[in-house]
Automatic annotation (TrEMBL):
This is Methylenetetrahydrofolate reductase. GO terms for molecular function: FAD binding; methylenetetrahydrofolate reductase (NADH) activity. The keyword Iron does not apply. It comes from Novosphingobium marinum. Its EC number is 1.5.1.54. It is an enzyme of class 1 (oxidoreductase). It comes from the Bacteria. One of its GO terms (cellular component) is cytosol.
Length: 295
């Protein structure tokens, strides 16, 4: 009796959606279809990721600038410190500011070669904390940062990782968005620990719908997310049944959100992978309905 039924959820939640910059014209079309489909739900912001090693610098910029120009959705640009001098970063963020973008998701990023050790660029920002400080000095952006309920793989321990998150918040970030996770208790434990640590800013769970079990487990391994044993069982035998798989993925993500809601969570960030339907269905089940003013 601890969780409300979907039908009783009043829709008192805020959502945001994450996209990645498209590589081809076909992918561009898919992205814009997804943005148009999700826009009526009135997300408080939509964000666009930055490719490893800064490889999508132009594409991320073009996508975010187009969202700012052509929709009324608040657009956020992800930005990393990888392979960039401070001057490079300043150039990028000045262009965002000039394009009317007011929100940056500030990240350290990962080494360009998979599995390598991160090394700061000698003329750049060493980590996300420094990047947040640099952005703050440059323009009054709204800044989001990353948080890790299961601890960042480079961090010696959870306490150290929380200390790093606290430094990022103290440097001027307004919210943390979490890496994806699959058990609600993972999030609740982290939220409690962060609060005990004196982090009182909002911590928004990042929700990853499992559209492709194999690729999600691969990603999870790289970023230290635990894939519970029951998940393999849930997706087994569905490789050749994409529609059944979609339904299972939606149910699983909606159930996670429903339990987070029961624990007081009212803000959710969805990793859409540039597809609208799953995120739309989950939002719908959580009581979110189209707002009058769409994009
Ligand atoms: P930081 O917060 O700087 O820290 C990373 C680790 O290093 C932590 O363990 C921290 O404790 C440790 N550390 C940092 N500074 C110090 C210090 N001075 N001394 C000791 N230890 C230190 N990646 C992309 O490439 N593009 C994206 O668009 C992108 N978007 C993301 C969005 C979200 C919501 C999340 C959760 C992650 C995203 N990432 C993205 C992945 C992210 O870049 C990686 O997880 C990266 O390894 C860490 O980035 P960070 O900003 O969390 O780093």
């Amino acid at each position: 009796h601890d969780s409300p039924l979907f039908a009783s959820l009043p829709g008192d939640i805020d959502v945001s959606f994450e996209f990645f910059p498209p590589k081809s014209d076909r992918m561009k079309e898919q992205l814009w279809d997804a943005i148009e489909a999700l826009a009526p739900l009135g997300p408080r912001f939509v964000s666009v990721t930055y490719g490893a090693g800064g490889s999508t610098r132009e594409r991320t910029h073009d996508t975010v600038a187009r969202i700012a120009r052509e929709t009324n959705l608040p657009a956020a640009a992800h930005l990393t410190c990888v392979e960039a001098t401070k001057e490079d970063i300043h150039e990028v963020v000045d262009a965002y500011w000039d394009a009317g973008v007011r929100h940056i998701v500030a990240l350290r990023g990962d080494p360009p070669e998979k599995g390598g050790t991160y090394a700061a660029h000698p003329g750049g920002y060493a980590n996300a904390e420094e990047l947040v400080k640099g952005l703050r000095e440059r323009h009054p952006f709204e800044i989001s940062v990353a948080a890790y309920p299961e601890c960042h793989p480079d961090s010696p321990c959870a306490q150290d990782d929380l200390a790093n998150l606290k430094r990022k918040m103290d440097a001027g970030a307004t919210r943390a968005i979490t890496q994806f996770f699959f058990e609600p208790d993972t999030f609740f434990r982290f939220r409690d620990d962060a609060q005990k640590f004196g982090i009182d800013a909002e911590i928004v769970p990042g929700i990853m719908p499992v559209m492709n079990y194999a690729s999600v487990t691969r990603m999870a391994k790289m970023c230290g997310t635990d894939v519970p044993g029951w998940m393999e069982k849930l997706f087994e035998g569905l490789d050749d049944r994409p529609e059944a798989r979609q339904l299972v993925a939606a149910t699983l993500a909606a159930e996670l959100c429903r339990r987070l809601y029961a624990g007081g969570v009212r803000k959710f960030h969805f990793y859409t992978l540039n597809r609208a339907e799953l995120a739309y269905a989950i939002c719908h089940m959580l009581g979110v309905r189209p707002k009058e003013k769409a994009a």
